[in-house]
Write a structure and sequence with these properties.
The structure holds two protein chains of two kinds. By secondary structure, chain A is an alpha+beta fold. Chain A is 68% helix and 10% strand. Chain A has 18 helices and seven strands. In chain A, the strands form two sheets. In chain A, strands 1-7-4-5 form a four-stranded antiparallel beta sheet. A three-stranded antiparallel beta sheet of chain A has the order 2-3-6, with no helix packed on it. In chain A, helix 4 (171-204) packs antiparallel against helix 16 (514-547), helix 8 (284-319) packs antiparallel against helix 9 and helix 14 (473-497) packs across helix 16 (514-547). The radius of gyration of chain A is 38 Å and the shape is elongated. Chain A starts with a helix and ends with a helix. Chain B is of the alpha/beta class. In chain B, helix 6 (151-163) runs parallel beside helix 7 (181-197). The chains are: A alpha+beta, B alpha/beta. At the A-B interface, helix 15 and helix 16 of A face helix 2, strand 6 and helix 4 of B.
Chain lengths: 598, 253
């Protein structure tokens, strides 16, 4: 009884839901049946069935026959056509304006269409009818003369078009092929960019790796204080180094010399600073000297990269004009140099942040180990207050930049106070000997950012990028790349979470540190699925990049949208077919490759 | 001489409230082969993992070779761990890596992390890895993928990995539980030989009493996380057996 009541209620609910759904989505079956709608459907389906891919060069054949409007006083003039080629007769060969005459054509190309024109004295072509020849090249049709009177002979002209030469790609076909190639490469670049960024992020978003990362309160506070400083310092030093390098060694010869010297010196220093085996922990002085040496290695490496980039740009620009149709190779070399110059300050900032992160971690650990709980607590309170202040000020600066409030009280003073107070509360409430679950916090933040990014489609992201870098494939690459980072990082991190835990335990038990554990126990387990997911993502990106042009992202979608807007469905059909072919090929290719890898 | 391992009032309560160990204390002198017995879930694995802090003890102390392991910071803990080899029931090899890489992983606590990250080991370590593989009879398998080996071979790779650490102590967590009886004896013989020839202390959890009688110098028994028995294998009579394994248990083997 109760059961059947539930079922009845469910049926009623389903009825209401579907009824509302029909109303909202404006289901209209009458429209489907209307004749005009069906004709429209026929028109577009026929257009789509005739993709504009191939074309012939055409030659126009014109055949003239004289006609008199009105009939001359002398009566109907005689006319003997030249019967060696196609010819045309008009009966009668004269008439009043708007009189009907019968036109017969003989010897035309069989089964073709043509247009009949009336050509008055002025020489302008006035269309008066169309004709279609039979299998023998003959046609007969009745047309009405125009009301242009003259005492001279005027002409009727039959024009047909004839294909000459072999079939070749139409302009639309050429454009389609160019754009589909552009599309596949957009997807390739976006996938490459996304993969490189997604790999490190995926480790941060893997719960099993991050859950065990804990850090003393002092370390966390020092990290918040020092890392922004490190990022700023790293970026600034790298930028300054780049300026110096480029002004000192603008020419390619000194750059080449520097490019040889800097890596050699850096390698020698690095070999000294990082000995392969360490019997016992080295003394403080040696450690300090090694740190200085490593800093020098980093600076030399950055310098070398700048010189390398300068050299690439110079070389690329120089050889591009010499390569003819392979100039894109030279442009690519110059572009790689440009990318290095662009990325180096970011890399420098990250290195600076990383160095200060490790300093903060060690310093915090040392404090936690060495100090008495009471002193540690006092220090923690001070550090946390400053850390909270720094964090709040950074957020305040971001708010100021976005909303331009121009009220220091709201974006500087209050955040600083609130941040400091929150920091003090954290420091007081936490037990000095209990480390904070820093890893889980990073995991949570990473997951949240990734989920937010993933929920915005690349098709929407591209709108922002098209404004930033201009409409075109580059905007599409950036939007697809960003979306790929979010999507792949999630897939990757789930893969990391599903690996066998035993080998991790075994490697940790040998005394390996966290990074060694990742290299020896995590990475071997995830290489194959990572490759598989990357192929899968490339497949998706090809599909996405075919429509990203709709929103200004370049590629074949741009062409397709234009043709649809111009109601040029035959051209659009060519692009739709090209997309179908490439996407299904990519589908087969990626599943084949994935089977090979896994 | 001080004992290689001293366990004082060790207690472990897991976050879900399970009391895995309750106030366990015992000493292990250097060079002893100690068997840890008890029912499944009696806390054998937790005990072994608390010693190198793969599992963080709730309270109590673990003192390894004079160093308080429970008070170590990260760097000091890694220096302790590299001298404690560990062998697992499910071998815990990295299946997709070659055998030799799995063995070399035993050196990770010793080498400079920067070099090991780019997979560079010193020639001495490479030679050592080959020597250990030779010792466990797998010299010809160095280049094979770990999962291409049989169970007994995989456990021998696990032993070679532990030997790479130049261990003073080997923790063996049910090393033969997933192997057939013949292979079980061959693995136990390897451990016995390491114990006798190299003087490495072995702490080995076992299920079968015949293996305990054949190889162990001493038995430590756990029941529900409590230390029930600590003595010679021959001292386990029927009364003790019932105490360790419960009233319902029947003696097999």
């Amino acid at each position: 009884m109760k059961r059947s009541l539930t079922i009845a209620l469910l049926i009623v609910a389903a009825f209401v839901i579907f009824a509302y759904g029909f109303s909202v989505t404006q289901v209209n079956l009458e429209e489907l049946g209307q004749e005009s709608r069906q004709q429209a459907l026929t028109r577009i389906l026929r257009a789509l069935a005739h993709p504009d891919f191939i074309a012939f060069d055409q030659e126009q054949v014109e055949v003239n026959a004289p006609v008199y409007v009105p009939c001359p006083a002398a009566g109907e003039p005689a006319y003997t056509p030249d019967t060696s080629g196609p010819y045309m007769t008009v009966t009668p060969s004269c008439g009043d304006p708007r009189a009907e005459v019968v036109v017969e054509g003989v010897g035309f190309a069989p089964d073709t269409n043509g247009v009949l024109y009336f050509i008055p004295d002025s020489g302008v072509q006035l269309q008066i009818g169309r004709f279609e020849t039979d299998g023998g090249g003959y046609f007969q049709t009745t047309v009405r003369l125009r009301d242009r009177e003259s005492d001279q002979a005027q002409q009727l002209r039959a024009t047909t078009r004839r294909n000459i030469g072999n079939a070749h790609l139409s302009q639309n076909g050429i454009d389609t092929i160019n754009k589909i190639i552009e599309t596949v490469f957009m997807a390739l670049l976006a996938t490459t960019l996304g993969t490189f960024l997604a790999i490190p992020v995926s480790f941060l978003a893997a719960r099993n790796l991050m859950a065990t990362v804990t850090s003393p309160v002092a370390s966390v506070a020092l990290t918040l204080i020092l890392v922004p400083l490190g990022v700023w310092l790293g970026g600034a030093v790298t930028g300054w180094l780049g300026q110096t390098a480029l002004t000192l060694l603008g020419d390619w010869l000194p750059a080449l010399v520097g490019l040889v010297v800097a890596p050699v010196v850096a390698t020698i220093l690095a070999r000294w600073a990082v000995p392969p085996v360490e019997k016992s922990p080295p003394g403080a002085l040696v450690r300090l000297l090694r740190s200085i040496a490593l800093l020098a290695v980093a600076l030399l490496a950055i310098l070398a990269f700048y010189l390398f980039a300068a050299l690439l740009i110079a070389a690329g620009e120089r050889i591009a004009p010499l390569l003819g149709s392979f100039a894109f190779l030279g442009d690519f070399i110059a572009n790689v140099g440009g990318i290095i110059v662009l990325v180096l300050p970011i890399a420098g900032a990250l290195i600076g942040g990383g160095v200060f992160l490790s300093i903060a971690g060690r310093l915090g650990n040392t404090l936690a180990d060495r100090l008495s709980p009471r002193t540690l607590k006092a220090i923690n309170i001070v550090l946390c207050a400053v850390a909270g202040m720094v964090l709040a000020l950074l957020i305040g600066a971001a708010v100021e930049w976005l909303y331009q409030l121009r009220q220091p009280r709201l974006t500087v003073v209050w955040p600083a106070i609130i941040g400091a107070v929150l920091g003090i509360i954290v420091a007081v409430r936490s037990r000095a000997d209990e480390p904070l679950p820093l890893g889980l916090a990073v995991y949570g933040v990473t997951r949240t950012v990734l989920n937010a990014l993933r929920s915005v489609e690349a098709l929407i992201m591209v709108i922002v990028f098209a404004v930033w870098v201009g409409i075109g494939p580059f905007a599409g690459v950036l939007a697809l790349g960003l979306h790929t980072v979010a999507a792949l990082a999630k897939l990757y991190s789930e893969q990391v979470e599903s690996i066998a835990n035993g080998p991790l335990e075994a490697v940790i038990a040998t005394g390996a540190n966290r990074l060694q554990m990742i290299v020896y126990a995590v990475i071997p387990q995830i290489v194959a699925p990572y490759i598989s997911f990357t192929m899968y993502r490339w497949d998706i990106n090809v599909r996405m990049s075919t429509i990203i042009g709709f929103a200004g992202g370049g590629g074949i979608g741009f062409l397709l949208q234009q043709n649809i807007n111009l109601l040029n469905y035959r051209a659009a059909s060519a692009q739709i077919i090209a997309i179908a072919i490439v996407v299904s090929l990519m589908d087969y290719f990626s599943s084949y490759m994935r089977q090979r890898v896994v | 001489m001080n004992p290689i391992l001293r366990i004082e009032h060790l207690t472990k309560v897991y976050p879900n409230g399970v009391q895995a160990l309750t106030d366990v204390s015992f000493d292990v002198p250097r060079g002893q082969f100690v068997a840890v017995i008890g029912l499944s879930g009696s806390g054998k694995s937790t005990l072994l993992r608390c010693i190198n802090r793969l599992v963080e003890p709730t309270s109590g102390k673990v003192i390894f070779d004079g160093v308080d392991v429970t008070a170590c910071n990260d760097a000091a803990l890694r220096r302790v761990r590299r001298r404690i080899g560990m062998i697992f029931q499910h071998f815990n090899l990295v299946n997709r890596s070659p055998v030799v890489t799995n063995v070399l992983a035993g050196r990770l606590g010793y080498v400079n992390p920067v070099w090991s990250l780019i997979n560079r080991f010193s020639p001495a370590d490479m030679a050592k890895a080959n020597a250990q593989l030779e010792r466990v009879g797998l010299a010809d398998k160095a280049g094979n993928r770990a999962d291409a080996l049989s169970g007994g071979q995989q456990q021998r790779v696990g032993i070679a990995r532990a030997l790479m650490q130049d261990p003073a102590l080997i923790l063996a967590d049910e090393p033969v539980a997933s192997l057939d009886p013949v292979l079980a004896h061959s693995i136990m013989k390897h451990l016995d030989q390491i114990n006798r020839d190299d003087g490495v202390t072995v702490l080995c959890s076992l299920h079968f009493l015949d293996l305990v009688h054949a190889y162990a110098d001493r038995v430590v028994a756990l029941n529900d996380g409590k230390l029930m028995f600590d003595g010679l294998p021959s001292e386990i009579d029927d009364a003790k057996f019932k105490e360790i394994y419960g009233k319902e248990a029947e003696r097999v083997g």
